[in-house]
Amino acid sequence: MVSNNVNKKQFSVVFVKFAVCFLLMGLAYRLFYSSFMQFPPIEVSDKGFVPEKTLQPPLESVNRTVDVTERSPQNGKCDLYIGDWVPDPTGPFYTNNTCYSIEAHQNCMRNGRLDTGYLYWRWKPRNCELPKFNPKRFLDMMRHKSVAFIGDSIMRNHVQSLLCILSQEEKSEEVYHDKQYKSRRWYFPTHDLNLSVVWSPFLVKADIFEDNNGVSTDIVQLHLDELDVWTRQFDNFDYVVIAGGKWYLKTAVYCENNTIVGCHNCAGKNITEVGFEYAYRKALNSTLKYITRSKHKAYALFRTTTPDHFENGEWNTGGYCNRTGPFKEGDIDIRDIDEIMRKIELDEFERALRISSEVGMTVKLFDTTFLSLLRPDGHPGVYRQFQPFAEGNRRTEVQNDCLHWCLPGPIDSWNDLMMETLVSS
C-alpha cells in the first residue's frame, strides 16, 4: 500500500509539472504570435508630398517578394481570380510620403483618412500562391519596352499604383502630358522603359462636354464605327492593358456613318432608345478586332469592369462608402449593370481569343471584377477632398468617391496579378 501511494504521488507531481510546462509554452507562443501580428505603422501625414530628392526607401519587411518558382498550384491549375482577401501584416510597398505620383483625390491618408486597416490585405488565389509584385524583376523584364494602359480614370488609377511601386526601385521622368494631364508618359532611363497612360474612356471616338467634376453642358456623342486616337499609337506599344468601363452608363447619343442610330437614357430627344449594351458591345468588338488583327503583335491584357460601392445613393445623390473591411464571398452580389457589362466583356473576349489563336497573338483576360467587388473599404469616399471635416462639422455634405481606389490600397494587388500573368506566359 505504501508503494502504491508513493507511485500515485510521483505520478501526481509529474502530471502537475507537465501541465505547468504546457501552460507556459502556450503563453509563450501566444505572446510571440501577438507580437508578430502587430501591424507596422503607416505614416499618416497632412504635410503633402515629400520633395523627390527626400523620398525614403521602401518599407522593410520579411519575405516581401516571393520568387515565381514558389508557386504551388493544386491539380496543376491556378485561377488567379478565384480567391479571398487575407490579412497581410507586411502592408504596402509605399506610403503617401514615399510616392510622388499619387493624385490628390486618391491620397486618402494625406486627405485625413485615419483608419489604416484597409492597407493590410492581399489577394490570395485558392489554388496557388500569388507572389508579391517584384519591382526590380518587372523593370528587368520590361527593359527596352513600351507599356501602355488605355482607358478611363480607373486605368489611370492603376498606372499611378504601378508608378508608386516601381519608384521604390527606380524613379521615372515624366516626358509627356496632354493639356489636361489625362494622357501621360513616363520614362525609366536605367531600364529604357516607357510607361504610358492613354486617356480613352469610350475607346471609340467621342465628343464629350463635361468638366473634371463630371458636370456636363451637353450629351455625349459616340461615333461607334470609329475607334479613338489610341489606335494611332498602338504600333509603339509592346504591352497593352485596355478596358472599357462606367462611362458607357452616361447619357449618350450613338452615331454610325455620321448618322444617329440611337441613344442611351436620352428621354425627350425623339431618338430611339437602344441602351448602353448596344454601344458597349459594338465598341469592345471593334477594339478587340483591331488589336487581334493588327500586324503589330502587342501583348494585350483586357481588363473587366470595376464595380463601385456606393450605398444609399449614387455619386451625385448622396451615396457613400464608409466600410472599413473587405467582404467575404457571399456577403455581396454583383449589381445587375456590372453583371451585364461583364457578360458583354466575356463574350467579346472569347471572340477575340479565337482570332488571336489563329494569328499567333497573345491576349489575356485580366478579370479583376470579383476581387474588386469584395473591397468596399478601399475607396477614398469623402477623403477624395483634403480634410473634408477639418472644421469639425460632420454634417457637411461632401461628395463621395466609391469607384476609384485609395493609394496605397487594394488596386496595388492588381499589379501582383498583372506580373504573375506576364511571368506565367
In short:
The chain has helices at residues 2-36, 135-141, 153-166, 276-293, 336-359, 369-373, 412-424; strands at residues 83-87, 121-125, 146-151, 173-177, 184-188, 193-199, 204-207, 220-227, 239-242, 252-256, 259-264, 299-303, 363-366. By secondary structure, the chain is of the alpha/beta class.
Task: Characterize the structure shown.
- The chain is α/β, with parallel strands linked by helices.
- It has a domain of 236 residues.
- 27% of the residues lie in helices and 16% in strands.
- It contains seven helices and 13 strands.
- Strands 4-5-6-3-9-12-13 form a seven-stranded mixed β-sheet, with helices on both faces. Strands 7-8-10-11 form a four-stranded mixed β-sheet, with helices on one face. A two-stranded antiparallel ribbon has the order 1-2.
- A hairpin with a 4-residue loop joins β5 and β6.
- It is globular and about 55 Å long.
- Keywords: Membrane, Signal-anchor, Transmembrane, Transmembrane helix.
- It comes from Capsicum baccatum (Peruvian pepper).
- Pfam families: PC-Esterase, PMR5N.
- The chain-level mean pLDDT equals 84
Number of helices: 7
Task: State the total count of DSSP E strands.
Answer: 13
Radius of gyration: 26 Å
Largest sheet: 7 strands, mixed
Which regions contain 5 or more consecutive residues with pLDDT less than 50? 1-18, 20-75
Question: Beta-strand percentage?
Answer: 15-25%
Order of the strands making up the biggest sheet = 4-5-6-3-9-12-13
Helix-strand makeup class: alpha/beta
N/C terminus separation: 78 Å
The shape is globular
Order of helices and strands: HEEHEHEEEEEEEEHEHEHH
- In helices, the fraction of residues equals 25-40%
